[in-house]
Amino acid sequence: MDETALGLDGLPVDPALIAEAAALPEVEATARHADLAAQIEAANKAYYESDAPILTDAEYDQRFRRLVALEAAFPALVTPDSPTQRVGAQLAGTFDEVRHRRMMLSLSNAFSHDELRAFDARVRRGLALPAAPEPAPDLRYVAELKIDGLAISLRYERGRFVQGATRGDGTTGEDVTANLRTIKTVPARLAEPVSLDARGEVYMPKSEFARINAERAELGLPEYANPRNSGAGSLRQKDPAVTAARQLSTWSYQVIEDESTPLRLASQSEALDRLLALGFTVNPNREAGLDIEGVITFTEAWHEKRHGLPYETDGVVVKVDSFEQQERLGIVSRAPRWAIAFKYPPEQVETVVEDIVAYVGRTGTLTPVAHLTPTKVAGSTVARATLHNLDEIRRKDIRVGDHVILQKAGDVIPEVVGPIVDRRTGDEREWDMPAACPVCGQPVVRDEGAVRHYCANLACPARVGQEFGYFAGGMDIDGLGWAVLSQLLERGMVKRRGDFFRLTVEDLESLDRFARKSAENLHAAIQKVRRRPLERVIASLGIPQVGWTTAIELSHWLAGAVPDGPDPWLERAAALLETTATEHPEAFEALDGVGPTLAASLSAYFRSDGPGKGVLEDLADAGVEVEQPVPRAALAEGPLAGKTVVVTGTIEGFSREEAEAAVRAAGGKPGGSVSKKTDYVVAGPGAGSKLAKAEELGVRVLDAHGFRELLEGGE
């Protein structure tokens, strides 16, 4: 890029785009500007508020650059509410607001080494230093890996953590203090009694992202797109217990000093070292004292190496090291002139679908998996990729023998993007789901209107093995992998979940390739998890469609509903669940977020003839104890007290979670499906069968405006 290619306020932009914009008639330029601004605003809203991006980073950046070019060519188009003049998005209204002591800025992007050199040229001009290739010994950069997470600000007073907030619109963020306290890498107290704000990122490790997606796939739920949005959604939960159940982590990278206890820092590299000394987690993969060519070398070194990291990074953040120079350079509307984010291009490769094989999961679901010609992508060799279900295979028109495009969703999960139709020879063949279970031979079932195919045989060896493996993983038994579990099941040493806790060191020592020390270590790991939170135990049972959120709600309900008695609490809880499931299954619908379908799943599992019969009693008999939650506080009185509200489609100003949280805050109950008991349906664009059902039953339907009026007590 030409070093003079700047838009308004110094925002970098391709000069070819400016020339293209300048050639437009003013009327057409105005229309294009309005269209691009609307697209970017919608993307901002989806990304920052709903944690559900509708554009890839590359698509967003392309649109943003074209908007900057239009404003450079037609300055009259710049208005205070233009996306180029703002950071992030408006607040969603779910959490209390926190005003930042200093604005949390966004960063301009660079996509090539030439653009990094253009950034260096702008910095040199701003500091009145000689142009490259002349040396500038007083100018040094810090290169840090760019973490793809949710930006946060942590406030400390006299060394104690007092408040944490999201970036929000850059000026005002959301108060997520309670949720941040559940993250182990957020220090509750610093090594020194200083007051400051620490800026950083909350992120979800790749392993946790993979675990959650595997859980959602087994529950028949849509998988999350990437760790960034999964982490952001986990942090922005109204219930801190949900956040605590997700293994989130943080990196810190900026200090905002407080006048009461100034640290007198002179540079970014010094600030990072001080953050580390105070007890924050600081990414070790950084380098200071670089000129721009050193920065480029750093980006090249991490291009492939980054794929081996346990967290997601999509680039490198480059900052002028000296704070004095940063002050002189200043900011341009939404971004500092002294920093830029270099982004790596997305990596896609071509491979061949050699076969498609259906695998049986713990709920009996048959998941088609593509067997691929082993191909290296995003740092590792991929030979398998899930195709999710038969409908998805048909939608993408993927056939055995196809040449396909392969990428890693979120740099983690292998994903077949689609076939290269031009490479077809006519020898490719369509794949169909097998009629019989490939493990036990029983018929494969597909319920009417459902996506999944499944084996209904509860005794199917594949289902049993997966269920026990899911339980061991959910309870966090370290060292109990598939090879060990297979032996325990094959030898009949584990027939019920409680049998894990009845194993002796001698039992484990009898396993193949187990020495005494290995047996002692695994036995100790099992004993360590004898006492677990009730919601973890419930979630580990693998009840169809029941994930962490429902397990937490069920635990709170049990805490207030289990009667007193002489028997162990867990046995009394099991008896109550069986009675409710058998005689009053509709009672489960009183739980937040539980509709008829989920209530039916709970009932089918816990009733007297269900697969959950005796499971909790067996765990209690084996010595498992639960940490009991406190009963959920009664809903406050409000305009929706006693009302059931179903939300469907896209509601202007609300994500789905935010709309349901607003219903609860108003005293109502969010419903999962529409029935005669539903009082209101709030419908927006994209509403489907639920809206049709509401119209069929005569349930009152509201739009976003009507929903707001209802929340405020109106009719």
Brief digest:
With 715 residues, the protein is an alpha+beta fold.
Strand and helix map with partners:
Blueprint: H1 15-22, H2 26-49, H3 57-73, E1 97-99, E2 109-110, H4 113-126, E3 141-147, E4 150-157, E5 160-166, E6 172-174, H5 177-180, E7 196-203, H6 206-218, H7 227-235, H8 240-245, E8 249-257, H9 268-278, E9 286-290, H10 292-305, E10 313-320, H11 323-329, E11 331-332, E12 335-336, E13 339-343, E14 349-360, E15 366-377, E16 380-386, H12 390-396, E17 403-409, E18 413-419, E19 444-445, E20 454-455, H13 461-474, H14 482-490, H15 505-509, H16 516-528, E21 531-533, H17 534-540, H18 548-561, H19 569-583, H20 596-606, H21 615-621, E22 625-627, E23 644-648, H22 656-665, E24 669-671, E25 680-683, H23 689-697, E26 700-702, H24 704-711
Helix pairs in contact: 1-3, 2-3, 13-17, 17-18, 19-20, 19-21
Overview of the structural elements:
The chain is of the alpha+beta class and 715 residues long. It has six domains: 8-86, Helix Hairpins (Orthogonal Bundle); 109-210 and 220-343, D-amino Acid Aminotransferase, Chain A, domain 1; 349-455, OB fold (Dihydrolipoamide Acetyltransferase, E2P) (Beta Barrel); 461-529, 5' to 3' exonuclease, C-terminal subdomain (DNA polymerase, domain 1), CATH 1.10.150.20; 533-627, DNA polymerase, domain 1 (Orthogonal Bundle); 644-711, 3-Layer(aba) Sandwich (Rossmann fold). It is built from 24 helices and 26 strands. A hairpin with a 2-residue loop joins strand 4 (150-157) and strand 5 (160-166). The longest helix has 24 residues, at 26-49. The chain is globular. The N and C termini lie far apart (58 Å).
